[in-house]
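Bench notes, afternoon.
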Amino acid sequence: MQLTDLRQRLRALGANPKHEARVLRQWARALPQDGGKRRIEDFLPKPLREALPAMQAELDGLVRLHSRHPGEDGSERLLLDLADGQQVEAVLLPRGGLCVSSQVGCAVGCAFCMTGVGGLQRQLGSAEIVAQVALARGLRAVNKVVFMGMGEPAHNLDAVLDAIQLLGQEGGIGHKNLVFSTVGDERAFQALGAGTVKPALALSLHTTRDELRAELLPRAPRISPANLVAHAEAYARATAYPVQYQWTLLEGVNDTPEELDGIVALLTGRYGVLNMIPYNAVPGLPFQRPSWERAAEIARSLHRRGILTKLRHSAGQDVDGGCGQLRARAEPRIVRVHRGTASTSNP
């Protein structure tokens, strides 16, 4: 379901802009439709009031909780069922954060990510994206939403931006607490600044070398790391939000002295922060997680060289719940991965 369809249905039931905003606000904030200071009998038109219970039930059915997987760090991975039987993941993060998915599967095919193994299954509707937030708010307070779950947000751009607009308005989330994460896409860079709600930007960098980026992110747009950073820098300066440069730390792959020199050359003087996340190990994929001591030393060395670097834990490591892993375990197929290939079979 798309939010535009939902808005049209509300208008067909006699809703004016204030009525529409109220219904969407109550839903996005996980509040009862008949709650609030004003009785709905004194405010909403009768056809809308009569349709609300069935409409709310439909919205509740967009995303349902399948299972919860709490981690030792205070995060909690959620496996969610969609109305058509597909599944996605979301993550409740410490301090009120929530990571949501934008697609079922992903077409980018990052070599180190389980989500991309099965390719793209389908896009999520903008209402399905907001429904993840509504569900999560029924479990705990959410004041920040990051689009870093399953899928590439730039490949579902209209739906993601519609969800961001609603969450930043009726959803009551501060604009800088909405984080659009992307591998880099010209369309996304152009569209992000055009909306009323301008989210913060996270750029999945992972390497400073063109040839390694092509290997790690085989179906990402062929934009050089230098040009990606230039686009991100322009957006950061325009919005006054620092860019979050994402770097999944892969032992022996992108933790070399050459890469560290490249980071310094690329990010010195840039308005942003480098988030280094040691790889969340995925059985069958040919990558290893560096030791925490090694990762910490890398972060310290970059910091000494003038690069603001934060070393972050990957939520779900202790429950084997890295991006796509919960869904993969719930799938009735077995995924066998070899270097450069993937095959599936039924058990």
